[in-house]
Amino acid sequence: MRDSGSRVYAQTLTGVGDRSHLLECGVDLSTHITDIANLLFYEDLSDVILVGHSYSGMVITGVATEVPERLGQLIYLDAYVPEEGECEADLWPQKLKDEMNFDSATSSGLRPPPSLKMLGINDPDLAEWARERITQHPIDTYTQPVPEGNEQSASIPRSFIRCTEGPLASLFGRFADKARNAGWQMREIETGHDAMLTAPDEVARHLIELAGAT
Q: What is the pTM of this model?
């Protein structure tokens, strides 16, 4: 993507990945929204194309309500698409809600990472690489609703990239249908949910095309 002339930032959210040492700092959805809003402010970025994968559909929706003036487009990469006042847990099928209730009672506020098979990572070498890096996730990020939007945030163009294979295809297919019905630009990739690992070149190509269409 950088070779195409794009200026790219890959921000890690507080409490996960290389910032997992901050898990005990009261992390919730608003923390993650602030992570990105602060990046945009301190780097003084504008006309940004903000991409959110999976849970981060909640994050970019919230960022749009906080700093809409800095955004040019939102791209949901096989991601949750919430309405105002919804949290991620509201969007789960009942089976996942039941599992989450069990996790909440036994995990001290942290959710274990999903299986790599669930994420569509089947290559053994890639699975081993990912297994060493995937971390637990703070449960409060799932139960805090997105903030209320406004006229400016509602006017930001939106796009959706759907991953059509793997165990999560039906769950996120619901949000792809929602995006299509709303008239968003749509793309599809024949791969599992973690497309940035299993089909990185296709993800980059679609992002570049969608950026050029803005």
A: 0.93
